[in-house]
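Supplementary Note 3. Input sequence used for the single-chain structure prediction.
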Amino acid sequence: MVTTAEITKLEKSFNDKLKKLKTEYDGKFNKKDQEINMLKQKVETLSKKEEDINLLNQKVNTLQNEISCKDKQLIAVNKELLEVKKSVQYMSDKLDESSILSRETHQDVSKTHNLIKWVKEKTEDLEDRSRRDNLVFFNVPEQIDNGGNEDCEKLIHDELVSRGFKEEMPDEDIFFERVHRLGPRKNNAKHPRPIIAKLTYHKQKQQLLQNGRLLKDSVMNMSEDYCRETLLLHKDLREYAKEAKNNYHDSAKSIVWYNVVYKKVLLTYTLDKKNKEAKTFTRGFNIHDIKRNPTHWYKPT
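The predicted structure, written as discrete structure tokens, is reproduced below.
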């Protein structure tokens, strides 16, 4: 039979083994709990990462949508750029055409300008030629008492004869085609109106001009008849000649006389300004010569 001591011993042994097993299992369970907690933490971490991934996916989707919109906008912009390029090319072509047209127009305008200039010069020349037999007389007193019916031809003829022109001319008399005053009569005018006379013979006009010295002591003077443009040119040429005569300084030469003949100014130089009997020479200059060298045009070469 089993004794009480043995039963107690067995019970104690059993309890020791049970405690040992419990201790072992408690350690194992604690370790497993720790592992489970670690797994839970990992699961939580993964859950957070999953949420982050979901957020990233959302952002990626948003970016993809934005990129898609941008792509559509870019396509639209490219279409607009293409249209702009076409418009620019069209405008460039039109500009080239306009440039060519402008250049051709400029050439046409230049040709037209030259043609107008040529026609103007020809018209002036023709008008001057139509006046080539005319002489204009100045400072001839008007006979107001005759009611404006003065005989201008007789006034001019008598004055010329009294000054000795007839004796200097080979013809028997001086012949005029028509003679009359220029412009309407004005009351209280300071100077008498000029008289224009068309001579029958051109040679007689030249002879009258050549003997113009006979009018030196007369109040009357005469000049050739030209169109307005030529008269203005004469005025400019006289001013240039006067300025040249005053400004020309040379150790020996000087300008002693000047005259305007049609569209030229003639300058007469002396080779020795201290000797009145020294030889002289004449040079002619037109307005183009003067404008080409405005400061030294009058210096003889």
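The helical segments are 4-130, 152-162, 165-168, 202-210, 228-247, 287-292. Residues 4-130 form the longest helix (127 residues).
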